[in-house]
Fold:
Amino acid sequence: MKKQYKAAALISGGLDSMLAARVIQDQGIYVEGLNFFTGFCVEGHTHAIRKKDRNKPKRNNALWVAEQLGVKLHFVDVVEEYKDILFNPKHGYGANLNPCLDCKIFMVEKALEWIKENDFDFIITGEVIGQRPKSQRKDTMPVVARESGAGDLLLRPLCARNLPPTRPELEGWVDRQALFDFSGRTRKPQMALARRFGFEDYAQPAGGCCFLTDAQYSDKLADLWQSRGQKQYELDDIMLLKVGRHLRPGPEFKVIISREEGEGNFLQGYRDRFVSLKTTSHAGPLALIDGEAGEAGLELAARLVARYSQGRDAERVELEIREKDGSTRTLSVAPLQPHEIPKEWRL
Amino acid sequence: MTRVTVDARRLLCPMPVIRVQNKVRELEPGAIVEAICTDPGALNDIPAWCRINGHKVLETRSEDGEHIIVLEVGSK
Ligand code: SF4
Structure:
């Protein structure tokens, strides 16, 4: 009986990895999906937090893709291991703090571990030569294969015919002629293939699959590292970077101010880990103090928070200051005027 | 019958799914897992994860801002 070959597909939730998996399924290969959770993934979070987004469909695209394909999906939690990649990317960062090439190598390396443990035969990704200027180029494709250790067990079905044949092709597990030769930044071939398979409503991430490609997010992360004197973070830190206004009035502390009710509710969950402020005389946001503000800093933060409350034009605004242990006290301050908030404070 | 609770409160998707997945991995078919979440996205994601991985959702309910998904581990 002919052996049933098995492939692990890296599923990001975007169209390309979906197509790659489907192309290989069409060749009679059994496919299961892997999705790596670094903590920076775009999926879900901000939708879950912001109230105005709550009515949008909250599907997780990787799960949706797996369901369309009829394949199992395994999430792989790489939050801790990913720190090494992000702190010291051997191949450097992209336009922002996105270490895409190192990230790809790392994920393929993890996929290689997975196929060995689970007795699968090869790995597929949705990479396309020239699709991304830094990480998906003709010269980076062999780098990913080599440095991940996957070598010729890594097959990219969408651009395989532009690359040397891999083991699945050479051994006849898959038919090279039925694979593709996509290249360049155009999305047209992918869209045509999606139509052929009847895929609709797929996700089209603009910059990349994670927040690290976002300039503003990267700035906030760089600020976090600088303020701590080292590249370090916990999962909570990187979640909080997605929420609220971040203002840094001084090197010792920053203030995270909710922009709407959903964010306020989310920040509430952190009140045992941060000193928090809430206006009481007027409706207003909830704010967290990240760092050590001291008494003068706290008053400055209170004036700042008052500025973002309904009492912005009032002479005095009262706020409740809550310590991490739950004890509270009241502070009455004059809201800052717009010209008293330097642009550099905004992260 | 094994019955376990996964506390995924305050976690944002896909973390509740990951917690459930890791717990399910340790359990035998037929075991019951009750996941308690605060991210409403879990109401979609956990059942979707169950459908594609062969587990059965027995119940979903929401009360006091918490979303509870009860599932039965399928054969793996
Ligand atoms: S966009 Fe983010 S997740 Fe995607 S390859 Fe780059 S660093 Fe990795």
Q: What stands out?
A: The pocket of iron/sulfur cluster is lined by residues A 98-100, 103-104, 135, 208-210, 212-213 (CB under 6 Å). Chain B touches chain A at residues 10, 12-15, 17-18, 21-22, 39-41, 44-45, 48-49, 51-54 (CB under 8 Å).
